[in-house]
Write a structure and sequence with these properties.
homodimer; Phosphoribosyl-aminoimidazole Synthetase, Chain A, domain 2; seven-stranded mixed sheet; four-stranded mixed sheet
Chain lengths: ~350, ~350
């Protein structure tokens, strides 16, 4: 290290600390030390910046008393997202991680307010890709009117993850007087669906495993709490909502039937599926009722309110294609039946396993 | 399929549905369908059972207005847990997932109330092992007085996970009048630590990669909100708390110094390390200040209250070995210095990367 004159050239000294990799995530980014702080400051804070997150505490503290005054209740939800690939037509894992949890809150009638964001990153993920995911989350959060208030980053060794898994937990406020739940569902109620089915699942399939469809299919990922608020504004008496994500409409309807101990009857001819999606499903032998949606909801409403609610849905950007899908019946409790186009009736079973794994 | 007589033997018919594997988690357990419901009903509900979770909504709804009346504020936190191996002396990933998030809430002075629990499971994990993890979470939650109110399960293919990753988010209430934060730290304040350092990290190391130490070392994983409440009962004016998990005490002290824009000086001779842990650290060339703890806290308190707070800590089961570690100074803001046993002073740097990856 000494130069010709024998003096030490400080600029040429090297220190045996970890190489600070700038292009890809390394294990050290998950260590809680300087590299972790750099990742937070370079990727997450610029994307999510808000006064609560910027305090960088282990937890965040929020005033909520005013929000709950007058009978509001707290709604809490969580989901992990493991979709593969991380980017697909119409969205990324970041959009799903925000909209999915926002929607779980919306299904209890809540106004979503705050999200947590936790990342499990596989060593080697390009930091630019992580930044893009964070950017998608930030845009989705702004669009949904929620703040990402606290978070966490872990890194696992190459081969122990799949690029990036994201968990979000959400907190919202259920307005006074709104009480959705299976115990309120009754025979005679009407089942509505807010739009076309299977778009998300087929969009992910379209880029997976080298598949390609002629017509472009985009994920329907979208926040639905605005649509729910519009529905509640014309009918405070909504009975139950579900967003048919993994397992599709068949699974959500079976859950409603089971939890409410009622039968559900849907009309095959009413099932809304966009034609490129229908073609792709047919090509792959998939039933659109079993394919995941990320921007649709099922609603059980009193028959007397079905038309006004449907009208409110159709006036909202995320409910334009809403239709009556079927009805609640006293017969066959726990089961979903479909009146086929040919006039027959068949059972719509809850799927056992996974038709298309890792859709969300 | 026809027998000798030509009739169909129905009992011998097989149906091309997925095999319902009973011993290990398969992809279908993450599909949202019947297998997912079975896993929830057989593993998670029995462990976590409570009236809120039992409703099985996409989100849960809770009354919190009374809890916030009179000036209480909401605390929110999240962490993902990726510890390897899943079980180690003194605990499992399940204990960490509850206590770690409880502690993040406790560090803002909050009483923890509710947890979410989200699992990313690698295909092939024995269901018995998952049930054991859930059992540990349930016991830890009961011990900490928190309820697991909602959750999520995803399954990834073999080779895309590491048995099981767990995320928890926590919600708690900060009592009126409690306001911890770096902006309240002043030169002259005293730094306390609640007990011996490096137990958790060395316990995990003791079972990793075939290492074995002579003396048994156990993780210190424990919920700390009771200790914090005891400290607050003698000093409402606590300035700041941190739990020195990954990155150890060196990282947490550097964070306090940075966020509060003060210097911190600690005394080498005051650093509490149990002798088997000290021996193990020496053997592996590790600095106990950099090793993770899961049941310890650092507290910055006004000098006038240091003795009463220390007394309250020592009377609590999780603070028996509490000591004065050092003090806040006006010099070298953002830096942590250590007065060595020999009378010198050296800088305690924040670690750059990860000395021991995947400790929590």
């Amino acid at each position: 290290m000494a130069d010709a004159g024998g003096a030490i050239d400080v600029a040429r000294l090297v220190c045996p600390t970890p190489v600070r990799e700038r292009e890809r995530v390394i294990l050290g980014h998950g260590g809680g030390g300087t590299l972790s702080h750099e990742l937070i400051e370079q990727v997450f804070l610029p994307a999510f910046a808000n006064p609560v997150l910027d305090r960088l505490g282990d937890s965040c503290v929020l005033d909520a008393a005013d929000l709950l005054a007058g009978g509001g209740r707290l709604a809490i939800s969580t989901d992990s997202y493991v979709v593969r690939p991380l980017t697909f037509p119409g969205g990324t894992i970041g959009d799903l991680a925000v909209n999915g949890t926002v929607n779980d809150l919306a299904m209890s009638g809540a106004r979503p307010l705050w999200l947590t964001a936790a990342f499990i990153i596989e060593e080697g993920l390009p930091i630019a890709e992580l930044a893009e995911i964070a950017g998608c989350m930030a845009r989705a959060a702004r669009a949904a009117g929620v703040a990402i208030v606290t978070g966490d980053t872990k890194v696992v060794e190459r081969g122990h993850g799949d690029g990036c898994y994201v968990n979000t937990a959400g907190i919202g406020i259920v307005p006074p007087g709104v009480a959705l739940g299976p115990e309120r569902v009754r025979p005679g109620d009407v089942v509505l669906v807010s739009g076309t089915l299977a778009d998300h699942g087929m969009a992910v399939m379209s880029v997976r495993d080298g598949l390609e469809f002629d017509a472009p299919i985009s994920s329907d990922t979208a926040p639905l709490h605005g649509l729910v608020a519009a529905m509640l504004s014309v009918c405070r008496d909504l009975k139950m909502l579900r967003d048919p994500t993994r397992g599709g409409v068949a699974t959500s309807l079976a859950e409603i039937a089971t939890l409410a101990r009622v039968g559900i009857e849907i009309d095959e001819e009413a099932i809304p599926v966009a034609s490129p999606v229908a073609a792709a499903c047919e090509l792959l032998g998939l039933d659109p009722l079993l394919v995941a949606n990320e921007g649709k909801l099922l609603a059980v409403v009193p028959a007397t309110h079905a038309d006004p609610v449907l009208g409110a849905m159709r006036r909202h950007e995320h409910g334009r294609d809403a239709v009556r899908l079927g009805r609640v019946v006293a017969a066959h409790p726990g089961l979903v039946a479909m009146r086929t186009a040919l006039g027959g009736t068949r059972i719509v079973p809850m799927p056992i396993g996974e038709q298309l794994p890792r859709m969300c």
